[in-house]
Specification:
Chain lengths: 488, 415
């Protein structure tokens, strides 16, 4: 049953919420709410009625209880970097922003954990413990902006998840405000307490199980040494064959990232690393571990690259050079504005050995729909990010982008992959869920969601298709089907 | 019924069937459900001592005949198999490609992959390699209506849908039998090395603390009591020549890295412990011996979790907790398991368990009685007091198995 907000509730809602978070703890004017009408996925927009900024768990509880009392939908939001509409307020209602809950509450190196509030920015964690020789491993490219709470919601990945695992492998427990306002401690700094692994279930639940109010994260020791190589290739094909062969050789690099010619141009203009603009593709290949043996591993990778016709393979000679190389990769999306006014990125995954084939297919799709597609992605685990470049003011381009996106994701499924490696289903890919899962599979997931969120007030319209799966009867226009709205 | 095959589960005889396929398994579930009985999923039967005894008449449905390789794209470093396959058989399949699924158990020749997941089996290598939850990519479970339901997929990065697989790991089959899974694999290391070092009682803490900070990156950091060390030495085919605590440190990786770490460990520990670091001549046998320690020794078995920094203290407190005892502490993970033959004639088992549980809880931890000899088992004794999040677990159980078809009464209260 769709949950929507009724406009005449506004005054009562705002005043009730203000009594919990204070008048300076919320915004409700249309101009201020504009920022919250979408997240990093700008193709669908819907304005919330109110955005609140709780400072503590108790305030979150107060907000959630008011929403329950008034029957108003609500959802959590970190930094709004979601690329799948995870923060889209389907049905309007209240956005609970965790931006003011940004304290690192506890760091315990000896016991390998930290306890943080959900609004803590990802890089702050590593910055806090790096002098002790430790770090927080999951490093999504948006890590300078995204929050730990958001990472928990989407089970975020990043370049170094190839070796170190994804967010769920690094979350020990959460404090969760359930959709009915109860506060539940799930897991904690001690592993494997008897019972079901609810922590593992909550990570990646995309805000549909409640509002995470604290997170116990696992900390990991820094490797002793790192070698970061840059491989220059004439073609995407050569680069992707290199990746398949590195993995097939039983090497587990710390990271394997690819950038194609189109994105290289934008990235070089933005960051001036020194990428050759005539290269078909470059590979960032990083190994880490003990100093003893690391150069041998780097050499093996270099040989594989050269065997697959790499023009050149060079080693980052200093930490500064290494950091600039990673900056160019991680902030690449920010450079896309040099290529087109709008972009839409996909998050498909294919088995690693199918990468060369998939990249060829993407190239054909680009020609077929006459849409330029740049490629930058976590090549080592087959997680692709084709960036479709267009102008959202042109309705025909929007239509072609949609169709090209669908064809890319359908192909990922045909090749035995997934439609989302790390960005989440959100609203963007709900229509793909019946392609990935049978009705019985989806029913089991729906039943689990019932255990947490029986009224459906928390994060409605996310991840799981509702029965009937047509547009929500929302007060704001929104389409659940592939057609997206151009900005107006 | 007298010629019906049976299996004993915690002292109760239960009818036993061996469906030959996933379809037959699903059909069998429907038949048992229609008969108003319980389904007891069964793999190799190596750990049916966990949890509580059956409370309802029912049928044990064995998965052993579900043991096919469905897909093994070795260059993708994943494998999809039916979960009645034993770990040993899987390793035979993976050996040809020099790959491994690094989940440890004491009896890989008999334990099925489904059973390993359902019991969340882990061993000493968890420090370097993690546990089952770090390797399961996709899972098919048969639900209470005999319908296969799947989650996850076959690729190493996938966040589509809820991670239902995590729910089933360690769930003791109470949410449905696990019939097919996709695992992430690791390449086998070029070299392995295992070192043991005698650690005096007053040096245990220094040993435990150091390995978090030294130059090496072990995959195993264990502390064995005298009883455990004797058992280990027997299996490993070595002679320790000294009673008392023994530290065990394992490495793997490139040959150069393994050698460097062994030599560095010796240098680093010289000033911390008075004994010499000894390298186990046959490292593989040594790792097998460590795995064997996870088996059901003694009459009573205990398993506790605490903060990693408190593990050595708990281990010491458990030393000689009962006659014929052994204690194994996985120092990096904060997990301790112990066994022994307590004299329950003098003090009831529950009272002894509560004392030890109180010790673990004082260090933010928990304690489970994995085996209790002849003493009666109930949820409170085995798992300890209920926690608030168990109410959520009960609700999940109610949603996924409303009729309590699967292993009723064998896990926590209401699960």
């Amino acid at each position: 049953m769709a949950v929507t907000f009724q406009k005449d509730q506004n005054a009562e809602l705002v005043s009730s919420l203000a009594s919990v978070v204070g008048p300076d703890g919320l915004i409700s004017s249309p101009a201020e709410l504009l920022v919250y009408e979408c997240d990093g996925y700008t193709m669908e927009k819907n304005r919330p009625e109110v955005v609140v900024f709780p400072r503590c768990t108790e305030e979150i509880v107060g907000v959630v209880k008011i929403c329950n009392k008034l029957g108003v939908p609500f959802l959590p939001r970190g930094s709004g970097t979601s690329l799948a509409g995870g923060c889209l307020p389907v049905g309007g209602g209240v956005i609970i922003s965790l931006a003011r809950m940004r304290k690192i509450l506890e760091v315990d190196i000896r016991n390998r954990y930290a306890l943080v509030e959900p609004g803590v920015i990802n890089t702050w964690l590593t910055n806090r413990v790096k002098n002790d020789g430790w770090h927080y491993a999951p490093d999504p490219s948006s890590q300078g902006a995204c929050t730990i709470g958001g990472n928990v919601a989407t089970n975020s990945g990043g370049p170094h998840t190839l070796k170190y695992g994804v967010t769920v492998n690094h979350i020990l427990g959460v404090e969760l405000v359930l959709p009915d306002g109860r506060v539940m401690t799930i897991g904690g700094p001690v592993e494997e307490a008897p019972g079901y692994d609810l922590t593992g279930l909550v990570v990646g639940s995309e805000g549909t199980f409640g509002v995470v109010s604290k997170v116990w994260v696992r900390l990991v020791r820094n490797p002793q040494s790192v070698r970061t190589l840059l491989g220059i290739f004439e073609s995407v094909d050569d680069a992707s064959k290199t990746i398949s062969e590195i993995i097939g050789a039983g090497i587990v690099p710390a990271a394997l990232e690819m950038l194609d010619k189109l994105i290289l141009g934008a990235v070089e203009a933005a960051f001036g690393f020194g990428f050759p603009l005539d290269a078909g593709a470059v590979l960032i290949m990083e190994v880490d571990g003990l100093e003893a043996g690391i150069d041998d591993e780097a050499c093996r990778i270099e040989s594989i690259a050269l065997k697959n016709k790499a023009r050149k393979v060079s080693l980052a000679n200093s930490e500064a050079e290494r950091m600039l190389l990673w900056k160019s990769r991680k902030q690449a999306f920010g450079a896309v504005g040099r290529l087109a006014p709008s972009y839409c990125t996909q998050d498909g995954v294919v088995p690693r050995t199918r990468l060369p084939e998939m990249l060829g297919i993407i190239h054909e799709i680009s020609k077929k729909y006459d849409i330029r597609i740049a490629n930058i992605f976590h090549a080592g685990d087959g997680n692709m990010h084709p960036i479709l470049l267009f102008d959202e003011r042109d309705a025909d381009q929007v239509r072609r982008v949609m169709e090209a996106s669908h064809e890319i994701l359908d192909t990922c499924l045909k090749l035995g992959g997934s439609v989302t490696g790390e960005h989440g289903i959100g609203v963007e890919k709900i229509d793909f869920m019946p392609k990935l899962f049978t009705p019985d599979d989806l029913m089991a997931m729906t039943r689990v969601r019932q255990a947490f969120n029986p009224t459906g007030l928390c994060s409605p319209g996310k991840m799981l298709p509702t029965a009937g799966a047509c547009a929500e009867p929302s007060s704001a226009p929104r389409q659940t089907k592939p057609g997206r709205r151009a900005a107006h | 019924m007298s010629d019906q095959e049976k299996v004993e589960i915690q002292g109760h005889g239960v009818a036993l069937k061996h469906p030959a396929s996933q379809e037959e398994y699903a059909q069998a579930i429907q038949e048992v459900a229609q008969a108003g009985q319980a389904v007891y999923p069964l793999g190799g039967g190596t750990r049916q001592y966990l949890g509580l005894p059956p409370v309802k008449a029912g049928v044990a449905l064995c998965t052993r005949k579900l043991d096919r390789v469905i897909d093994y794209p070795a260059r993708d470093m994943t494998v999809t198999v039916e979960l009645g396959m034993t770990l040993a058989k899987l390793r035979e399949v993976l050996a040809s490609e020099n790959q491994d699924l690094p989940i440890d158990c004491p009896n890989p020749g008999q334990s099925t992959l489904g059973g390993l997941l359902a019991t969340n089996s882990s061993g000493s290598r968890r420090h370097g390699y993690g546990t089952a939850r770090d390797y399961l990519l996709g899972l098919t479970v048969i639900d209470d209506h005999g319908r296969p339901t799947k989650s996850g997929g076959r690729v190493v990065k996938n966040v589509a849908g809820y991670d239902m697989g995590k729910l089933h790991i360690g769930a003791l089959g109470t949410l449905g039998p696990l019939v097919q899974g996709t695992f992430k694999l690791k390449p086998k290391p070029e070299a392995t090395a295992l070192c043991v070092v005698p650690v005096a009682e007053d040096q245990v803490d220094a040993f435990a603390n150091h390995l978090n900070r030294g130059q090496t990156r072990p995959i195993v950091i264990d502390l064995l009591s005298a009883g455990a060390a004797r058992l280990f030495a027997n299996h490993a085919g070595i002679s320790l020549g000294r009673e008392g605590w023994w530290g065990v440190v394992g490495f793997d990786g490139a040959e150069k890295a393994a050698r460097w770490q062994v030599s560095t460990l010796k240098d680093e520990l010289r000033s911390l412990v008075s004994g010499d670091v000894i390298e186990v001549p046959n490292a593989h046998k040594g790792f097998d011996a460590l795995n064997a320690l996870g088996g059901p020794h003694g009459q009573v078995g205990l398993r506790a979790g605490v903060l990693p920094g408190e593990t050595a203290l708990l281990a010491k407190a458990l030393d000689n907790w009962a006659p014929q005892s052994g204690v194994v502490a996985h120092l990096g993970a904060g997990v301790v398991h112990a066994w022994g033959d307590p004299e329950t004639a003098r003090e009831p088992l529950l009272a002894q368990v509560e004392r030890i549980r109180h010790m673990a809880q004082a260090k933010c931890g928990w304690l489970v009685v994995t085996r209790s000899g002849p003493a009666a088992r109930d949820s409170r004794m085995v798992f300890g007091p209920n926690r608030p999040d168990m109410g959520l677990m009960a609700e999940i159980k109610r949603q996924l198995d409303p009729g309590c078809l699967f292993n009723p009464g064998r896990f926590l209260t209401d699960l």
